[in-house]
Specification:
The structure is a single chain. It is built from nine helices and no strands. The chain has 203 residues and is mostly helical. It has a domain of 135 residues: Tetracycline Repressor, domain 2 (Orthogonal Bundle). Helix 7 packs across helix 8 and helix 8 runs antiparallel to helix 9. The longest helix is centred in the last third of the chain and has 28 residues.
Length: 203
């Protein structure tokens, strides 16, 4: 006797709900979106939505966690293909902005709408993960605290450029990005970051 295994269907429905929620959060923001909005857009009743996610915050956490996992996994894979610290930082920018440009909704959720309470905490977790990822590649003879601060600065550059680009896209009604847009954003940011790191010396 073959048992009916609904786990693949359950997993696919959960992923579909996450994509719907991400799209609505990107447009309306976390605070103004309701579980009713998400259920209606997904074509389900709210009780069904609650079978998969306990709350709107639970949905948000999962979206951030997915984005963080995808980004950090891609960064790890990319930096393993190059040798020098500078090349690792440059390829990290390339991966980051490729994802910003191709996964716009995810980064709109992260950066564009105001955050408070638990949603702000989730964003800080992602930022700390990026800082920890970058620290080993700042190959300068400085203290650990200094290195941590510089890594935070590099993450700040990436985040600020991403926000500026997303705001510009929104102001232009979300046009299709031109070819090699991610490459341009990465090159500009890497030039700024590396120019600053090159001037760093021990206090």
């Amino acid at each position: 006797m073959v048992l009916n295994d609904e786990r693949p269907q359950h997993t696919q429905r959960r992923e579909d709900l996450l994509l719907v929620a991400r799209r609505i959060f990107a447009v309306r923001g976390f605070q103004t979106t309701t579980m009713d909005d998400i259920a209606k857009e997904a074509g389900f009743t709210k009780p069904i939505l609650y079978q998969y996610f306990e709350s709107k915050t639970d949905l948000y956490r999962e979206i951030v966690a997915q984005t963080a996992h995808q980004l950090l996994s891609s960064l790890q894979a990319a930096v393993s293909t190059v040798e020098s610290p500078r090349a690792k930082i440059e390829v990290a920018f390339a991966v980051y902005f490729e994802m910003v440009v191709s996964e716009t909704d995810a980064f709109r959720v992260l950066f564009i709408h105001a955050h408070e309470g638990e949603t702000a905490t989730e964003l800080r977790k992602l930022e700390r993960g990026l800082i920890s990822f970058l620290e080993p590649y700042i190959d300068i003879s400085i203290s650990d605290d200094h290195r941590h601060q510089l890594a935070a600065g590099v993450v700040g550059i990436a985040e600020a450029v991403a926000v500026a680009w997303l705001v510009q896209q929104a102001a232009n009604n979300w046009p299709t990005p031109p070819p090699r847009e991610a490459e341009r954003l990465a090159a500009r940011s890497a030039t700024l970051a590396w120019g600053g790191l090159r001037a760093v010396h021990q206090d």
